[in-house]
Design a protein that fits this description.
Number of domains: 1
InterPro entries: PAP2/HPO, PAP2/HPO_sf
Subcellular location: Cell membrane
Organism: Pedobacter gandavensis
CATH architecture: Orthogonal Bundle
Protein name: Phosphatase PAP2 family protein
CATH topology: Vanadium-containing Chloroperoxidase, domain 2
Main location: membrane
């Protein structure tokens, strides 16, 4: 369904979500709900785990990296909330073209907070530990969480893209806190 005068990017956003909603299965839906539900656990668990390991092993660099990841996340959360309040974009299920969402979170849609936090953690962790076996799973997690937001019908693709940029930028902006030797 097209609304007269609707911007082409919005039409693309809508069509992607409609296509995804038509291809949902109970198994995939359960998997993507799991990813979305436990995103915050991972984003808090990473710096807490680094801090605990740094304290136990008396590793100053690891403790500093924990501070970097946590500070990046804090900056990201504040920036995300401010942008959401400024932009006030309605969720896809409240838009001009009603998107069938698996569930209906409150608040605004732009940018995706799940995506921004996942990318903040992935970027900060990858900058701290530049090994493929850290980077690959970190970004696989971030990308999967991001896709889950689309699959579940709770964010537009442009919300997710903006969240990825914001999350990455938040981590990069706090890079001075990294515990490099």
């Amino acid at each position: 369904m097209q609304v007269l005068g609707q911007h082409k990017l919005q039409q693309l956003d809508d069509q992607i979500l409609i296509d995804l909603s038509e291809r949902r299965t109970p198994e995939k839906t359960s998997f993507f709900l799991f990813l979305s539900k436990y995103n915050d656990v991972v984003n808090v668990g990473v710096p807490v785990g680094l801090l605990a390991a740094g304290v136990i092993s008396n590793d100053k660099q690891m403790r500093q990296n924990a501070l970097y990841v946590a500070s990046s996340s804090a900056v990201n959360v504040v920036a995300t909330l401010l942008i959401k309040k400024l932009v006030k974009r309605p969720r896809p299920f409240n838009g001009l073209v009603k998107i069938n969402a698996v569930y209906q979170p409150s608040h605004y849609s732009f940018p995706s907070g799940h995506t921004s936090t996942a990318f903040t953690t992935a970027t900060a962790l990858s900058n701290s530990y530049r090994k493929w076996y850290v980077i690959a799973p970190a970004y696989l997690w971030a990308g999967s969480v991001s896709f889950s937001r689309l699959y579940l019908g709770v964010h537009y693709p442009t919300d997710v893209a903006a969240g990825a940029v914001l999350g990455t930028g938040s981590a990069l902006s706090m890079g001075f806190l990294r515990g490099d030797k």
